[in-house]
Fold Peptidyl-tRNA hydrolase.
Amino acid sequence: MTYDLARRTSPHRAYWLAVSEPVASGSDTWLVVGLGNPGPRYAGNRHNVGAMAIEQLAADAGTPLRQHKARAHAAELRIGTLAGGRPGPRAVVAVPMTYMNESGGPVSALMKFFKVTPERLVVVHDELDIDFGALRLKRGGGEGGHNGLRSISKSIGTKDYLRVRVGIGRPPGRMDPADYVLKDFSAAERKELEFVLPDTVDAVERVVHDGLTAAQNVVHAR
């Protein structure tokens, strides 16, 4: 499956095509979830970079995230464009409105509501064991102590879903990792996020359009 690389030249990366009609439920629908904690207190935290990426994605599409009964903010989109300018795959993008360690409930509810299979679930989350700004893609595996992933795996009954891992780096000195992830990005890191977040959106698109292996070959080579 191919998609329109030329549209990446937009400075606003507006290659996410919103749809006015509801996304049809069914096995062809993707669910892309960004993890974080709700409310302004946590909005700038490192732990919220997954949620930030989904907000970036929705902003690129010009489609606001709206409250969903699954205890999430969600939007229905087409992801990119296919060869010949046809709309890309159907997707629901969402941010759970629960705390991180309860992310599984909203994700499970969204999957049931939109009839999404685990194979078409993409979770975007922060990763301590990856340098800040680097991206890594994988399917399944352990949760690495990440409470959001642990909650999702337990709620949907499998670890076999796609992850877009956004590096936030290790805490300095002897700082407790639990404290580190709940601190805001530094001023320098916030400047870099202007590049990291669009790159994360791009990584999500590549996974959906080209499959995991092809996406890894591009994203991991950066």
About this structure: The helical segments are 49-61, 104-114, 147-156, 177-181, 187-210, 212-219. The first strand starts at residue 17 and ends at 18. The longest helix spans residues 187-210. The beta strands are 17-18, 30-34, 66-68, 72-78, 90-96, 121-127, 135-139, 162-167.
